[in-house]
Write a structure and sequence with these properties.
Elements: E1 18-20, E2 35-39, H1 43-53, E3 58-62, E4 74-78, E5 84-88, E6 94-95, H2 99-105, E7 115-117, E8 123-125, E9 130-131, H3 142-150, H4 156-159, H5 177-182, H6 187-194, H7 198-210, H8 221-233, E10 241-244, H9 248-262, E11 266-268, E12 273-278, E13 284-288, E14 292-295, E15 297-300, H10 304-312, H11 320-327, E16 335-342, E17 353-357, E18 364-367, H12 373-382, E19 385-391, H13 400-414, E20 423-431, E21 455-457, H14 470-488, E22 496-498, H15 506-513, H16 518-527
Parallel strand pairs: 2-3, 2-15, 3-11, 8-17, 15-21
Antiparallel strand pairs: 1-22, 4-5, 6-10, 7-10, 8-9, 12-13, 13-14, 16-19, 16-20, 17-18, 18-19
Helix pairs in contact: 1-14, 2-14, 6-7, 6-8
Length: 528
Amino acid sequence: MTAATAGPARPGRDRHAVLLPPPPGATRVGGQPRSTAVVGGGIAGLAAATALAERGVDVTLYEREAYLGGRVGGWSTDLYDGTTATMSRGFHAFFRQYYNLRSLLSRTGNPPGRLTGLPDYPLRHRDGLRDSFRRVPRTPPLSALGFVALSPSFRWRDMARMSPARALPLLDVRVPDVYAELDAVSAHDFLASLRFPAAARHLAFEVFSRSFFADPRDLSAAEMVLMFHIYFLGSSEGLLFDVPDDPFPTALWDPLAKHLAHHGADLRLSTPVENVSPTADGAFTVATDREERRYDTVVLALDTAGLRSLVGRSPGLADAAWRERVGRLRTAPPFLVSRLWLDRPVDAGRPGFLGTAGYDSLDNVSVLERWEQEAARWSARTGGSVVELHGYALPQNADPDAQARHLITQLRNVYPETREARVLDARHEWRQDCPLFPVGGYTDRPAVRTPQPGLMLAGDLVRTDLPVALMERAATSGFLAANAILQSWAVRGHPLWTVPNGGRNRLLRRLGRGGGGGVTARVGDLRD
């Protein structure tokens, strides 16, 4: 991979963004018709279906839910007053490094997909410390230096106790090397080794690890360090982000569904797949409770539990070793999203999104009417606020109702004006379907290509060996799966972009790779 000097325009402000051109081939499928079944209508499945349909492939997308978008989907719910609102599994930040996801959304003609920027990414600790990314420079290493200089959580006496040598792996993050170096260490142990001030560790680093819905003790340090690279030291796009200006279906997926239909894709919602079976001539049959259909190729774009279940019901797929690897995939702990319709507004100065630390299980607070048109209309009509609370990595055996009550209690500590507010209506989503990236689990993670020709995987659980994560990993893996299928038919795939895979300048790379016996030796110390 090399930085692009020609070809497609760069997708953002970072001149070091890396272009991954597809292999050459025909512009569309010609001659014999080709067909693909995409199982799963989340971001990964939609990316794969879009990439294939645009090249003339006959695509059928199967989705068990009645809506598209997967974990970023939405559905209608009837409120206390007889009106209808859109409920979802909660807030998602669309960072400007999400080049391939934004490319997918730009297909709708609203580049990129009716996203609007929030003015800040504020963080607040219960002790009163506050951090913000609004004034932090976006270009590394000024981004890190600026954050330290502006952050009240970094004090000079704390800085003297830090271990800068332990932080050297942050300066030159490369995939897949970072997994060889740090996958055997937990995010918690790596952070502790840096000796960062406790408040800074909570505010500046655990925010990244908890984005995976996992306790830092259970998360691979490699995943957290990769996140730090993607958003902070490896990219000049910065840590500010965009959000859809309306609920996910309206702003994102309904327009993309029309784009897919325009290209002939068959979208089958509320249609779970029972099993997938290879045929003797190299094709596949996909069975639902209604019918069985034949396809040339298949993309499995499911969440962890869904993939394990479908592969378990499809014993003919790939080989035993691959099926066992899929069976070992784990889900992150449960999380809770509580959305409250309050009878009065939160203070006008409250941000649209606030990350929190030290408030027990409460990880962030969103005020939806700050950016979402549907919520803004409800707020204008009633004079109230639509507030959303997230609690990540909750205890496995926790009582969801008790946890929901506790989140509301913590909200009243964060925003005291809500103590007098009456909850007119509420929805609580208790879920456990995000992938877990455990310590030492990288080499066992399945990749996009499987041992069986014509069968591909896609999703944020999939190993890509590229510097991508979360929603961007889902979108990228979907495009990679489609590109692999197209390549097998001598059809050109789609160009992809990533943040730089490595330190941004020679000095940072030398620091990241040099001194003290190398990164491997330093990581070895953490295991002792």
